[in-house]
Design brief:
By secondary structure, the chain is α+β, with helices and mostly antiparallel strands. The chain has two domains: about 120 residues, no CATH class; about 80 residues, no CATH class. Helix content is about 20%, strand content about 40%. It contains four helices and 13 strands. The strands form three sheets. The protein has a seven-stranded antiparallel sheet, covered by helices on one side. The protein has a four-stranded antiparallel sheet with strand order 7-8-9-10. Helix 1 runs antiparallel to helix 2. The two termini are about 35 Å apart.
Length: about 220
């Protein structure tokens, strides 16, 4: 099966050492059709990248051609990216959670949000991750109070859980900066020798990139 993915420069994987996703503007992603194949590109006398495509997975072997001869450090490493794309939805439920963060309007079915919190809290408790379960429970309480009309600082929620909701449940998103509806979200789950995380690409109807969010999950 052929899948449409997007060529990106690997610098996007390394932007910032924080786990907090922040909006970034990026040039339009260039679509290409992937089949199982191998290719490579060489950049001067310093870098060679070998690409291996396996369906929705892209493996990059980034080879420092000078090794340790120029600075006593070989910066070669391997990056594995798994891509998926999700369409946003026109929500049919009556009771919705609506919030605006970073000039983007997020809309979810309220009961879907509560059910997802309960599901993730149960998973955290099953793994004996009490710190995670407590944090999720606190965020759930904040969202419930926000829904009741209380003034709640949602920055922590936006930085730590919002992208998970966008990925896991139906959502309707609108960007106020470009005055356009976000039609699709492409998610790149990446892993290198020294880090792991996800990149979220918000796309409009023309496949233009409206915003990019990076979420670093760990870094050594």
């Amino acid at each position: 099966m052929k899948k449409t993915l997007y060529i990106i420069t690997f610098i996007s994987l390394l932007i910032g050492c924080s786990s907090e996703p922040k909006r970034e503007v990026q040039e339009k992603l260039t679509p290409f059709v992937i089949t199982n194949k191998i290719s490579s590109k060489t950049y001067g006398d310093t870098l060679k990248i070998e690409y291996e495509y396996r369906g929705d997975t892209v493996i990059q072997k980034r080879i420092d051609l000078k090794g340790t001869t120029d600075n006593n450090f070989d910066s070669s490493f391997t990056a594995i990216s798994i891509w998926s794309t999700k369409k946003t939805s026109q929500l049919l439920c009556k009771k919705k959670l609506k919030l605006t963060l970073d000039s983007i309007d997020y809309e979810f079915c309220y009961q879907d949000v509560l059910k997802q919190f309960d599901k993730d809290i149960a998973k955290a408790r099953a793994k004996e991750e009490s710190w995670n379960a407590e944090g999720l429970l606190e965020m759930k309480t904040d969202i419930m109070n926000y829904q009741k009309g209380e003034v709640i600082d949602l920055d922590f929620f936006g930085n730590s859980y919002l992208m998970d909701l966008v990925r896991d449940i139906n959502s309707n998103l609108y960007d106020n900066k470009t005055e356009s509806r976000i039609e699709k979200i492409s998610v790149e789950k990446y892993e290198t020798n020294f880090s792991e995380g996800k990149n979220y690409y918000f796309l409009n109807k023309k496949n233009d990139t409206i915003a990019v969010y990076h979420r670093m999950e760990w870094m050594s």
